[in-house]
Amino acid sequence: MHTNLEDRKNKVKSILVTLPAPESEKSPYYDLAIPLNLKIDFRSFIHVEGIPGKEIRKDKINLSNYTGVILNSKNAVDHFFRVCEETRYEVPAEIKYFCLSESIALYLQKYIQYRKRKIFFGKQTAKDLADILKKHPNEKLLYPCSDVAAETTETVLKANGIDFTPAVLFKTVVSDLSDLAEVFYDIIVFFSPSSVQSLFINFPNFKQNKTRLAAFGVSTQKAIEDAGLILDIPAPTPQAPSMTMAIEQYIKTIK
Fold it and tell me: Mind listing the pLDDT tens digit for each residue in 64-123?
C-alpha cells in the first residue's frame, strides 16, 4: 500500500535520537533544537559489551602472531587494548595501526604515545583503508570487530585482496527501554539495523501511527522498510548529507 508522506507531515515538537547523549554541547542536534523549539532526547537502543579475554584465547587468537591491527571504530580500539590487558599481552612498540579515519587514529592517544607509533589512516571509507593496506602486503593483520561486524568494511577489504583475521572482541546488546513504554515522540532517529531490531524486541506490538521515522544509511533504511514501517526522513541525500540537515529540511516543509 502506497503511503502519502505529505499526509504525515504534522508539527514536530519532540525527537528521540537512538544514540548516547553527545559529550559536548556543540552537537548539531542542540543547534537544531534551539531555533526550532524542539525537545530532543538521546537514548542508545543498543550498547556494546566486551567479550572476556579468556574466551578470545579459546578461539585460538594469539595476539603475538600479528604485526598490524585494523581499527574501524573507537569501540574496536577500546576492546583491543582491554583484551591485551586481560591477557597480559604487552603490545609491541613496532606494531602498526591501520585506522578507518583520522579521528580513530587520534583516539589511540588514550592508550599509546601517538608520535612514537606507526599509525596509518584513511579518509573514512573502507576503500581508502584498503589502498593503504595494499602498501603493507607482508603484515599479519588482526581485525578487532563485534559479533555484528561492519560488513561493508570487511567486504571491501576482502574484495581488495587484503589478508586479515577477524577477532570478535565485543558484542552488540539490546538495551532495556521499558521506561519508554508510555513515552511518545514525533520523530525517532535510527542509525543502525540493530537499533530497529531493539525497538521490536523491547516493544513487540509497536505501532508507528503518526510517529515519523528517520534513518541514516541504506542498511538502516532497509531495516525500517523490512519491518513494515514507514520511512519519512532518509539521510544522507544530495540535499542533506547529514541527519540533522535532513531533519531540519523536513521540519521546515511542514506548514
Answer: 999 999 999 899 999 999 999 999 999 999 999 999 999 999 999 999 988 888 999 988
Dihedral, CA of residue 68, residue 135, residue 116 and residue 48, to nearest 10: -40
What DSSP element (H or E) covers 249?
helix 243-252
CATH 3.40.50.10090 fits 51-172, yes or no: yes
Counting every residue, how long is the chain? 255
Give the integer Cα–Cα distance in Å for 14 and 33.
9
The answer to whether the CB of 213 falls within 8 A of the CB of 229 is yes
Residue 132 sits at the vertex; the CA angle it makes with 128 and 138, to the nearest 5 degrees, is 145
Per-residue model confidence as pLDDT tens digits over 208-245 = 999 999 999 888 999 999 999 999 999 999 999 999 99
**Which is it for strands 46-50 and 164-174: parallel, antiparallel or unpaired?**
antiparallel
